[in-house]
Amino acid sequence: MVERTNEIINVDKSLVKxxxxxxxxxxxxxxxxxxxxxxxxxxxxxEKLLLSIKDIDFIRNQMDQLLSV
Length: 69
Prior knowledge:
Elements lengths: L16 E2 L2 H4 L5 E7 L2 E6 L1 H23 L1
């Protein structure tokens, strides 16, 4: 669910650059970046982003259970 968006744009695939492998190990949901005029645009894999949020919630719940014992 999206609470708010300011703008949706189309970016030509040829203008998308891969993310450096150092970044992808920690930010695996970013697929690429694109420079458009004076803006840096992140291309996000929404499925991976949602899975990472789900994993964080699972870990948080597990830690809460361990700490409450």
